[in-house]
Each structure stands twice: as structure tokens, then as C-alpha cells.
Amino acid sequence: xxxxxxxxxxxxxxxxxxxxxxxxxxxxxxxxxxxxxxxxxxxxxxxxxxxxxxxxxxxxxxxxxxxxxxxxxxxxxxxxxxxxxxxxxxxxxxxxxxxxxxxxxxxxxxxxxxxxxxxxxxxxxxxxxxxxxxxxxxxxxxxxxxxxxxxxxxxxxxxxxxxxxxxxxxxxxxxxxxxxxxxxxxxxxxxxxxxxxxxxxxxxxxxxxxxxxxxxxxxxxxxxxxxxxxxxxxxxxxxxxxxxxxxxxxxxxxxxxxxxxxxxxxxxxxxxxxxxxxxxxxxxxxxxxxxxxxxxxxxxxxxxxxxxxxxxxxxxxxxxxxxxxxxxxxxxxxxxxxxxxxxxxxxxxxxxxxxxxxxxxxxxxxxxxxxxxxxxxxxxxxxxxxxxxxxxxxxxxxxxxxxxxxxxxxxxxxxxxxxxxxxxxxxxxxxxxxxxxxxxxxxxxxxxxxxxxxxxxxxxxxxxxxxxxxxxxxxxxxxxxxxxxxxxxxxxxxxxxxxxxxxxxxxxxxxxxxxxxxxxxxxxxxxxxxxxxxxxxxxxxxxxxxxxxxxxxxxxxxxxxxxxxxxxxxxxxxxxxxxxxxxxxxxxxxxxxxxxxxxxxxxxxxxxxxxxxxxxxxxxxxxxxxxxxxxxxxxxxxxxxxxxxxxxxxxxxxxxxxxxxxxxxxxxxxxxxxxxxxxxxxxxx
Length: 685
Known about the structure:
The model is unreliable at 502-507 and 546-563 (pLDDT under 50). This protein has a 5-stranded parallel sheet, with helices on both faces. A 5-stranded antiparallel sheet has the order 7-6-10-9-8, sandwiched between helices. Strands 12-14-15-17-16 form a 5-stranded mixed sheet. It is an alpha/beta fold. It folds into 4 domains: 3-141, Rossmann fold (3-Layer(aba) Sandwich), CATH 3.40.50; 153-323, Beta-Lactamase; 391-541, Histidine kinase-like ATPase, C-terminal domain (Heat Shock Protein 90), CATH 3.30.565.10; 559-681, Response regulator (Rossmann fold, 3-Layer(aba) Sandwich), CATH 3.40.50.2300. The chain is 47% helix and 21% strand. The protein is globular, with a radius of gyration of 31 Å. The protein contains 23 helices and 22 strands. Its main location: membrane. Keywords: Cell inner membrane, Cell membrane, Coiled coil, Membrane, Nucleotide-binding, Phosphoprotein, Repeat, Transferase, Transmembrane, Transmembrane helix.
């Protein structure tokens, strides 16, 4: 069937190259468009172009500035593939001019004439596959941006119970917390008509007027009104919202938050009545009034503290849910990035520069994976992998990365003593914490300066706060920046608090580091003063365990190493991008792979012959989860080994099936080791 998703753009003004290329693409089921001039070629470039075919002769003496400008202006997700037809190949030895085209075009493949039609079509299809992956990346980026906008709106409104109203369909979506504000259970259905129906009749006109004003003028929606629950009780609700619009300014949805303020208003009314009584009695019983006042006020203060703690707990729960969802989706994207980079690295083993670039990309992607793990930990969706860590080696190994991260205007001065003991920590999270502290220090010195990183051992002989007695390593990061006053210092580790400009920081860095320190049974201490810089000290307890590297090597040797033979594997993942990457890794390991994109499709495959040696499935899938699929597959094929891949550290409550687990994102070596372990033992758990 002809491919209608993208177009091959051809610019070959000399000879019959354009006609031949167009004919070959048409026979292969790919659409094409031919440009008569370079200006027409550049004008035709847009997101619908899947790849471009040009001849070296047409570009050799042309002004490539307009083409170069278009390439540089591509959005972050786009890297248009170019197929250049040349008479002398694309290597610098035979064709020095090709280097100029490589520099201008970027993503380019050279095809030397005369070429075989099959080779041309194969390269064109490969370019189109790469372009499709870019389109997938564009969709994912848009989804992340949409999620970020929803999160930002909720934070600005002071999120408690979240809701969205689709203005086109009238569909109302509420969080479980928001449903309880209107007297419903979290699992109850609750439509917009039901919401309007539960508003107190005396307040309904005000609510509708406020909604209309928000939609017409764009002013923020902010109102307090009464609702009547199913049991007849009256409750006060405070609602705030903003309108989300498309690129043309058309309103799409209202996104907002609601809070039950009944207790607060009752307390205020109660206080008002008490004040009236106290004022009436002040003349005759001053002493009794003062005593009574000290006693209704203690009660009010206690109630207000309880209400504030409840609001904070609800807010952090809601933020954690959103953070965990976004981080899990980003984890899936990193899974595809890491898998493709690992496979690509194997195919450029002789290209030193390409290996260096790929290693850099892998390192960055792994940093991103570490960040998502920290976000999942913040959302209580991920556990730390704590073990003995050589903190001095870790700091020294990060020197190059830290210097690149802070830029040339900042000097990093590192002092790490020899023979330091190991600490009990998660190495990835400590690396991320150190990187965050260095970047914060750089941001505090906009004109440049010096960052001092120090490592030393201390021993606490007396318990201090939540710290137990014992030995600790102190990792300190000090800057020469503008510093913080005492009030700012007290708020520095609060979630989403930031001294940076809007859009320059999330306000999660120090909060995550503080949370990490507490999880490691350590502490984060900040010292600062205006004009005198800031020093951050991360205390981590010294490990009482030995390094497990030798144990790991022994375990691998006991298994006989990796690669015990090809297996027939059924891989199930509803995300096409993740499935494609995982299949490529399995094929590269020499396995025979069948791919399915749903639980039902996987069950159909399991019913076919020949039998499979292993089932690998994602957990979070629509229709049928990986846990449900595993339960059915285990019942039908009791001896089939099963491996569930998930971005969360633990499967949801109620998942009792004994199966093996592989956390996302995983490497090819981790995948190979787990496959060998499962298939060698012949067990699924």
C-alpha cells in the first residue's frame, strides 16, 4: 500500500536523476515531489517532507545559505534526512567537497553513482523510518508540553482538588480529592450537569456569571459558593481556574482547583460571634475576658494549624500524582533513546568521533533517566538503590561533566582526600544532587566565579536532630554568589520555591536533595548570607557493608556469562516507539522476536505455534494490563517464563502474581542478563 504519511522531496535539475528517483520511489510505494530550482526546493521544505534527495552537482556551486538557514531553524524534534547522489562517494579522501555538504546538511547519506535501485530504495526507506521516529518524538514533546502547562496552571492556582472542563464536549474531569469536596466518592461518576445541580440555588447565578466572564474576557475564575451534598448538608467551596486556549486564541478548556473552605468559614464566623460576646462583657469582667480570650484563641490556632497541615498534605499528594505520571512517561521516552543509542554505538565501532558523540548522548540520557528516577521517588513511585559508594571516586569522575555544565566563566576547585571510607547511598541520585548543587552555584554567580567542592569525614558522638551518632562523609559545594538572607534560607528546601526568574527553575532541586538526604539517613545543611555566597553540605552516613561488585561478577560467572543461545520471545508494549527499540535490542542479541501491541494481540500470538521461550510485557497498557496478561498466560502456559517491564519500582497494590521484573529504562546488557537468568532456570518468577 502506498505510504501517504510523508513526502520525498527531489532536487536534481541535471540529467534524468529526478525522473529516475521519482520513479523508483513511486514503485516502492513512496510519494515524491520534484523541485525545479534551489529556491523552490527550500520553499517546499516543511514538516510533511519525510526526506530529501539532492545531487551533489546541483549544490556544488550554489548559494546554500537559505538551505542552511532552514536546517538551523528546524524545531528540536526535527532532523530532516538528506540523500545525496554523488559521483565520487562521500568520504573526505575521494570527495573533499562532500565535507561541505555534510557540514551544511547534517543528517546526510551519500550514494555513489552508479547505484542499484534496491540500494536507493533501501536508503530512502531507512531515512523515512528515521523521520517517522522524529514525528513520534514531536507528538511526545507536545504531550509533555501540555502536561507541563496543566501542572503550571494548577500550581499557580494553589492546587488542592483539580478539575478540567472541556468546552467543546462539556466533559468534566475531576481528581479523587476534588470529588470528595462535592460529597462524592473517588470512584463516583460526576458530570458538569451534576455539579451545577448541587450548587446552592442562591449562589447559582453568581457562579454562571463568573464562568461567562472568564470565557468572554479571559479574567481568572475565582469564586466562593455553597454546595448541597446528597445528605442535605451545606458546604462552602472556593474555586479558582484559568482558560486554556489554542494557538488562535480559541478557548479549549477551563483548568482549575477547588477547596472545601467550610471549616475555615465556620471558624471565622465562630470567632466573630465570640468577639461580640467578649466586647459586651469587657467592662465588667476584664480579667475573665482575658483568660477566656487566651483559652477560644489557643483552640483557633490549633484548628488553623490542623487545616494548614491538611491542605499541605492534599497539595503534595496531588503534585506527587502529576509528577509521577509525567516522569513515568518521560522514562518511556528515555527507554527508546537509550536503546537506540546503544545499538547505534555497536554499528560505528570504527568511527572514534561518532562513538564519542554517542557516548556523550548516552551519558546525557542516563542523567535524564536518573532525574526521572528522582522525580518518581519524589512522587513515592520509585525506591532508592542504596549500596556502598566510593564518594571520592564519584566526585573525581564528575569533574569534566561539572565543568561543562557550569561553563567557562566558572572555575571548579575540587579537593578530595585519599582513602576515604565508602558511604551508604544511591550513586545515581548523589551524582544528580551534586550536579544540581553545582548548577545552583553557577546561577548564583551570573558574572562568573569559583565553585569549591570539598569532601571530608566527620564523626557525630551525640545525636543531632534526626541524625544518629556515627561517621559521615560531608560533601560541600560553596559559591561566591549573591547569597540568601535568613528568610529565604528557611524556605530554600520547600518544594517549588525558587529565587530564579519564572521559567528558569522548577524549585524542586534543593527539595529533592533534601529528601534524598533524609532517605539516606543523612542531612542537607545550608549556610548563606547576602553578598557572601552559599555553602551546601550533604551529610551521608559511612557504609558498614562491603562493595558488591565482586559478588555481582561471581553471580554472572555462575550463570555462565551472557548469551546462552537464541530464544523465541513475545514482546508486548502498546507504545510503538518503545516496542521498536526493544525489538531491535533483542534482534541484535540474536533472538527471534514476535511483537504485539496489546494484551489481546499477545494472547492470540501465544495460541499460535511454535511455542515461545519467554514473554516480555509492559505493565501499563490500556484494555489489559501486563499483570492481567501475565495471569492469563500463566494459567494457559504454566511453564512459560514471564518478565514484566515497568517504569515504577513496585507494581500496583493487589498484584500478587509471582513474575520477574525489569525496571525501565534498561540497558541491553541488563535485558540479556535477565533473559539468560529466566530461560536458563525455565521459571517465570
